[in-house]
Amino acid sequence: MNDGRDASVRDIGPRSYWGRLFAVWLTLAAIPATSGAQATYTATAGMPVRMEIVASCSVSASDLNFGAYASNQNTPVQGQTAIQLLCGTGTLAEVSLDAGTGPGGNTSRRRMEQEAGRDRLDYDLFQDPGRTIHWGDRSGVDTLEVQTTGSALTIPVYGQIPGGQRVRDGTYSDTITVQVTY
User: Fold this and answer.
1) Percentage of the chain lying above the pLDDT 70 cut
2) Domains of the chain, with CATH numbers?
3) Residue 22: what are its φ and ψ, rounded to 5°?
4) CA–CA distance from 96 to each of 17, 48, 88, 107, 126 (Å)?
5) Integer CA distances (angstroms), 120 to 39, 64, 113, 124, in order
6) Of 113, 86, 127, 126, whose CA–CA distance to 175 is shortest?
7) Is 117 helix (H, G, I), strand (E, B) or coil?
8) Per-residue pLDDT tens digits for 100-156
9) Rounded to two decimals, what is the model's pTM?
């Protein structure tokens, strides 16, 4: 049958239509739907996290005021004060007390100096209320070791001025350095 059209361009029925439609669909499917958008890439890396806990302590001390001492008094005069210590949990701290600023003193016999004169008044510091455990600055000998808890600790200091010292009237003083080694 010849309808006047060229035989090479013949319509062979509905299958040709669907075949061409399928070919167009395949062509369009091959083109990315977001052809104008940039591709997104991801890179990852490990980030080490580290922290070092550094031991720290703070220390303060209250004044030790012996009150009045009568010249030629035969009985000792006693006093008491406290050291406040705050260190991190589990820190082993060693508390030492130096000889003080009084001239001629040492940790076995400290000396207060008269503020308006040249007299000296001997005294000492102890770790116990019975005043038998001397407190000095020789590590492991006359210092105090404390295991800290992370809370403030109150450490008592006991002082004593021996009786029988002949000194002039006046005010006597000294300054002790409290050292904490941890």
Assistant:
1) 80
2) 57-181 (2.60.40.1090)
3) -65, -40
4) 103, 41, 19, 10, 11
5) 88, 17, 5, 13
6) 113
7) coil
8) 998 888 999 999 999 999 999 999 999 999 999 999 999 999 999 999 999 999 999
9) 0.71
